[in-house]
Specification:
Blueprint (H helix, E strand, L loop, with lengths): L1 E5 L4 E9 H16 L14 H31 L4 E10 L6 E10 L12 E6 L4 H14 L2 E4 L9 E10 L2 E14 L7 H7 L7 E7 L13 E15 L5 H6 L7 H35 L6 H21 L15 H21 L5 H12 L5 H10 L1 H23 L1 E6 L2 H5 L4
Helix pairs in contact: 1-2, 3-6, 6-11, 7-8, 9-10, 9-11
Amino acid sequence: MTNVETLNGLERRVSMSLPLEDIERQVDERLKKLARNVKMPGFRPGKVPLKIVAQTYGPQVRNEVLGDAVQKSFSDAVKQANLRVAGYPRIEKKDGASDQALEFSATFEIYPEIKLGDIASATIEQPKTAVDDAAVNRTVEILRKQRTRFVPADRPARDGDRLTVDFHGTIDATPFEGGKAENFVFTLGEGRMLPEFEVAARGASAGETKSFSLKFPDDYHGKAVAGKSAAFEMTVGKTEEPQLPPLDADFAKALGVADGDLGKMRSEIRANVEREVKKRIDARLKDQAMQALIDTTPVELPKSLIDMEARQLLQRAAADLQARGLKPEQLNLRSEQFHDSAKRRVALGLIIAELARAENLQPKPAEVRAMVEQEAQSYESPAEVVKWFYMQPERLSEIEAMALEANVVKWILSKANVAEKEIAFDELMGANA
């Protein structure tokens, strides 16, 4: 016997009454079945007395029967009430006076009903960015800087030079931890060192020793020295200046152009930049489209789904930090920090699922294939990458999700107010411009 009651918002509770006679009958049946095959010291297989089997395995079997009965009763109740359960139910045993039945309750949340809003009321900016010769030239310069060589400089140090120095510092004439180093390398002018340190190094020549003082900032990461003044002595071992590789056939070959043709190199760079520009424009459009969905379709979210998503985001962040050689526990990561992101992801997941159903936006195999091939273009052997995606369903499911989102964005752009907006190449590319 079961009944469903509405609590707050999406929360529901199912009360279940399980006849004790049925439970005992099922326990007895399972123990008899178990006795036919169980092995115990001193008895032949299948010849262990039922009483001994019950003494040994009775509690475990009873728990299994109760678990199965509660799960079946719960499933039947939510099915009969036509409820979609979100997350996992909280099962609790109720203290009842009846000696004929066991009483349980299951508290849970249900999925909300999604009523799609009017996307036509949304306004979306369509970025428009041209990849001209200047953009290609800037990209070439970035690639050159990434391949910078440092060569000895027979002159005083200036910004951009790489210095190798020895230094030691004292506070009140006493050495301190982290205040001494040998063959320490840094690039002058990058701001990696404290300003007084860079001022002392600027203009120094190889072999020169300088003495200077500095005050550590109050918010310095080394708390033992934060806010304190220190005296330093620094000796410059090497001064090296940056040297960019020349724009020649060797440079083109280093970028993968086998014959070293500079014209071909620029064409390939332009194609890569155009792909990156398209990717960034598509990302901006997607962000706006998804925000339009959230803004036009308010939805009550199950707390259980938000908590589950936040924990998954926490696990991914921790795994990413570990892959980078960092220890997540040092950053004191907590699932609460991912609550806002989890809330947005859950909302979008629910809305997109309903929109895909209502507008038949599920991607077709040809659309998925086209996206796989597009993803593969950035690799040296696109055909092999395509095969790799199709070898495992899990890999392909990620692309299918991306294809669904692409269809959703396309649908939104066809319904919303879309206005083109010119965006400069540097602005679109940001720090990578």
